[in-house]
Design goal:
This protein has about 210 residues and is an alpha/beta fold. The protein has one domain: Flavodoxin domain (Rossmann fold), CATH 3.40.50. It has 8 helices and 7 strands. Strands 1, 2, 3, 4, 5, 6 and 7 form a 7-stranded mixed sheet that branches. Helix 1 links the parallel strand 1 and strand 2. It is globular. The chain starts with a strand and ends with a helix.
């Protein structure tokens, strides 16, 4: 199989955030099963794109065939998402729902995402289950193939030391141990690998 690329995207954009550490942990779990299939994992940090609330004058679905983006931030985000064959979105849950920055970043694009497989990994006090479900509905509607296994990573001990560490941007060892033992991240990676290993995966998914 020809080499493929998966973007592992940290979707949190807060100044102080545990998202990059959660994504780095996810990377340690998925690298081996994906690497065995010649799939490269490329870390991407949404926060570095500085996307404002969508401010283009064109509708995302029109790009690139009928219109072009005007602003450099849109062009950069479009180019990054376009170059990958699949995605792992590591999303936070804030106030019992999807974060505004996460939804805004998804809404910037249509054709760049469409037809490709994606794993949703959420985290939060209760694992980010509400945000996970909301993003699944959104991405399915946009035309992505959402993997069945969608890990929901709850901080160890609930409202305990690991949560307070996360508030300061640190990821507790107990949480990491529990997440790895749960096996959902590795299972989702295998599902993503299986989809990407199919011939003409984008064409097949687009027909669904």
């Amino acid at each position: 199989m020809a080499s493929k690329s998966v973007a592992l995207i940290t979707m949190s954009t807060r100044g102080v955030r545990v998202g990059p550490n959660v994504a780095a942990f996810v990377n340690t779990v998925v690298e081996k099963p994906l690497g065995e299939a010649n799939i490269t994992v490329s870390p991407v940090d949404l926060g570095k794109f500085n996307l404002p609330v969508y401010n283009e004058s064109v509708i995302p679905a029109m790009v690139p065939e009928k219109a072009q983006f005007q602003y450099e931030h849109s062009k950069a985000w479009s180019a990054e998402i376009s170059k990958h064959d699949g995605y792992i979105l590591v999303i936070p849950e804030y106030n019992y729902g999807v974060a505004g920055g996460t939804k805004n970043a998804i809404d910037y694009l249509v054709n760049e995402w469409k037809g490709k497989p994606v794993v949703i990994v959420s985290y939060g006090v209760q694992g980010g289950t509400k945000a996970n479900e909301q993003v699944k509905d959104c991405l399915t509607g946009v035309g992505l193939n959402v993997c069945e296994t969608r890990p929901t990573l709850a901080f160890s001990g609930g409202r305990g030391p690991d949560l307070f560490a996360a508030i300061e941007g640190k990821l507790g060892d107990n949480s990491k141990k529990e997440w790895e033992a749960g096996g959902d991240i590795a299972k989702a990676a295998r599902e993503l690998k299986d989809i990407l290993s199919q011939p003409n995966v984008e064409e097949n998914v687009a027909k669904v």
